[in-house]
Write a structure and sequence with these properties.
alpha/beta; Rossmann fold; Nucleotidyltransferase, domain 5; 2 domains; 12 helices; 9 strands
Length: 270
């Protein structure tokens, strides 16, 4: 029984808005989604007669993503969004999934995310930093796709190897897919929004002796701010970001069940 629980993975439905997602980041995106569960459905929505979606076509077979065709019947109306929303509700009513991943920077999916959560399922959102706050707040967790991009060193080497001159639009997209650099302690402390968020999360879960476990602390951060992710500040691990802020005392103690593993506890410096 314990072995079954250990290897249980949430069943996820991944729905991608092709008009508002970057094809170059799909591999990194699916790897990120794999942290939260198994993608039992992977669908992408768009008008595949449109040449602007050409970059996606090479990715579909490689990553087993099912393209869903939606013609644009009238100008100014986004039929793609409607098709994605209808499919999402159909999948929701099957009761076969534990959560949904909505890949888009479009606020039109705000009500969809809220409705799915009302049914008790988890919603993970993926989009660019331009995504409206309403959609971000409607998700349990929202990941900015910029932090999934290639490191600047790799991006610069790729551009150096290519003799083809890129147009300004492609350069903007490339720069947005580069991972942010790690901010130093002074810059982190000057970020009032970050400092306030850390303090609020700490106060909510700190024990009477002032110490807080880093695991519940991270969960509380996401509850308060779905878009929080230490990678937004250039750090792969939450513990590394906490140490960099120099706002907390940090101690490591052996795990109760596995002495080789360490539990990180933090305490706000007075």
């Amino acid at each position: 029984m314990s072995r079954e629980v250990q290897f249980k993975s949430d069943r996820l439905a991944v729905l991608i808005d092709a008009d508002n997602a970057n094809a170059d980041l799909i591999e990194a995106l699916l790897k990120e989604i794999a942290k939260y569960g198994t993608s039992h459905v992977k669908r992408i929505y768009g008008d595949w007669t449109n040449t602007q979606l050409g970059k996606w076509k090479d990715k579909l077979n490689k990553f087993a993503i099912q393209p869903m065709q939606q013609f644009r019947y009238t100008t100014g109306k986004n039929a793609t969004d409607s098709a994605l929303i209808i499919d999402a509700m159909d999948l929701l009513y099957t009761h076969n999934f534990d959560g949904f991943c909505i890949v888009s920077s479009d606020s039109d999916f705000t009500r969809l995310a809220s409705r799915i959560r009302e049914s008790g399922l988890v919603v993970y959102g993926f989009g660019e930093k331009k995504t409206p706050l309403a959609f971000i707040s409607a998700c349990d967790k929202f990941i900015y796709t910029e932090i999934l991009g290639q490191p600047k060193e790799l991006a610069s080497s790729n551009s150096a190897d290519s003799p083809v001159e890129k147009d300004p639009k492609s350069l903007i997209k490339d720069s947005s897919s580069q991972k942010p650099e790690a901010l130093d302690s002074q810059k982190l402390k000057r970020d009032r929004e970050l400092v306030g968020l850390l303090k609020d999360a700490y106060k909510a879960i700190a024990e009477e002796d002032g110490w807080a476990n880093l695991g519940p602390f991270g969960a509380q951060l996401t509850k308060i701010s779905p878009s929080f992710d230490q990678r937004n500040y250039g750090y792969e691990k939450l513990g590394s970001l906490i140490r960099a802020t120099d706002l907390f005392e940090v101690k490591e103690i052996p795990h109760d069940k596995n002495p080789a593993a360490k539990q990180i506890h933090i305490k706000f410096k007075s």
